[in-house]
Amino acid sequence: MIELLFLLLPVAMAYGWYMGRNSIKQNQQIAKQDLSIKYSTGLNYLLSNQQDKAIDSLLDALKVEDDSVEAHFAMANLFRKRGELDRALKVHEHLVRLNHLPTKDKQQAVFELGKDFLSAGLYDRAETMFLKLLKSKDYGLKSLTYLLRIFQSTKDWKQGISHQKQIVKLNDKRLLHTLANFYCELATTAFAKDQFIEVIELLEQALILDPDSCRANWLMAKIYEKHQQCELAAKCYQAIYQQDKEFFPDVIEAMLDCYTRLDEVDEFYKFIKNVYDETAGSSALIFYLAHVEKKHGKKKAIEFILSALKRRPTIRGFEHFVTMQRLPSDTEVNNKSLDLITDLISGYLKLKHRYSCRTCGFDSSTHYWSCPSCHEWEQLKPVRGLEGE
Ligand SMILES: [Zn+2]
After folding, report:
1. Beta strands in 239-379 (DSSP E)
2. Is residue 211 part of a domain?
3. Which of 22, 44, 233, 347 qualifies as a cystine partner to 225, CB 3.0-4.6 A?
4. Inter-residue contact 338 to 325 (CB < 8 Å)
């Protein structure tokens, strides 16, 4: 009899296992049904434009199933894009509060929450979120980028600089470029107070972070000139040409002034001839023509500009060409006609923007170091082409 009981034992175990398995399956089935009811209710609310009820229902579903996290991120981002920030915040805050989420999802939720606060103009709260992620492998660089954007908006340059160590460690060119401009902002303030040594030290730091920052060299040239160190200023202007040929037309006049004070005007024209040969820019051409006219006479200068305009026609070059036709010995009627043409051309050019942002295409007649549209630094440069340089 006892043997029979022993024989029945595996059968009982198998039965127990089978029943248990069925019970788990049943529980899972019930949970899934519950989830799908919550989802379909949420979707129904969404479709009937009752978004707040939809969010509650879908967030409730999230408590049960982690697989839907991505869908929640997508939903919140959609809300943010539509400008419904309170709804995006509600979803992201809920995700941050969920303890059982994997670290990666949790960090994403904190990051997105930071972006929500930033869009809402709540800089303090956004800063707190991004600061939490500085050590994150996935979100460290992105968070630092947003932090610098916040400090740029609040003009808190020193706060930005306080993150220098990490920015240098990450070695991200764009962040280094931004930080160099933070130093330039501080240098501009020190420049206004004529704090010579402080300006130089700040600009040296800027150039260490970003050797391509022509703004740092431009400011350095200004402070050297102000303190009668024109030789050093001339070197800065030359460096700007090496750094950024597109920005260079804006410093030619200041450079001529600097060389004039050094009594080395011939050196300047040698340099500017080289600039013209390499870039064929209209500013370099117009400045160089003054030298040709002085050295070789007006006839040679007119021949030079004619061949230059054939090589690369620009409206500014043509305007200068018309001005050169004006002769003191000419009749009043002839000169008046030439004046009329020049006025028409300069009127036309005034309608055109002098600068365009190389990043977003924003056009402006005024120069800004930070683009008013995309906020990138040192991207507004003189327009190239027929109506520009
Ligand atoms: Zn821009």
Report:
1. 355-357, 363-364
2. no
3. 233
4. yes
Say how many domains are in the chain. Answer: 1
Which domain does 388 fall in, by range? 352-389
Render each residue's pLDDT in the chain as its tens digit; 389 residues. Answer: 445 444 444 444 555 555 555 555 666 565 556 656 666 666 666 666 676 777 777 666 665 456 678 888 888 888 888 888 899 999 999 999 988 889 999 999 999 999 999 999 999 999 999 999 999 999 999 999 999 999 999 999 999 999 999 999 999 999 999 999 999 999 999 999 999 999 999 999 999 999 999 999 999 999 999 999 999 999 999 999 999 999 999 999 999 999 999 999 999 999 999 999 999 999 999 999 999 999 999 999 999 999 999 989 999 999 999 888 877 766 777 778 888 888 898 888 888 899 999 999 999 999 999 999 999 999 999 998 888 88
- CA 368 to centroid of ligand 1, rounded, Å: 10
In whole angstroms, give the CA distance from residue 32 to residue 38.
10
**To which residue do tokens 């127990």 refer?**
16
Residue 269 lies in a domain: no
**Cα-to-centroid distance, 355 and ligand 1 (Å):** 11
**Which tokens go with 379?**
């991207």
| 342 Cβ contact list (under 8 Å, min separation 6) | 319, 322, 323
Question: How many angstroms separate the alpha carbon of residue 220 from the centre of ligand 1?
Answer: 25
Q: Whole-prediction pTM value?
A: 0.80
Numbered residues of the known binding site for Fe cation: 357, 360, 371, 374
Q: Classify residue 87: in a domain, yes or no.
A: no
Q: Which residues are annotated as a binding site?
A: 357, 360, 371, 374
Q: Is residue 271 part of a domain?
A: no
Strand (E) or helix (H) holding 301: helix 298-311
Distance 8 CA to ligand 1 centre (A): 81
Question: Which residues have a Cβ under 8 Å from the Cβ of 63 and sit 6 or more positions away?
Answer: 98
**How far apart, in whole angstroms, are the C-alpha atoms of residue 326 and residue 328?**
7
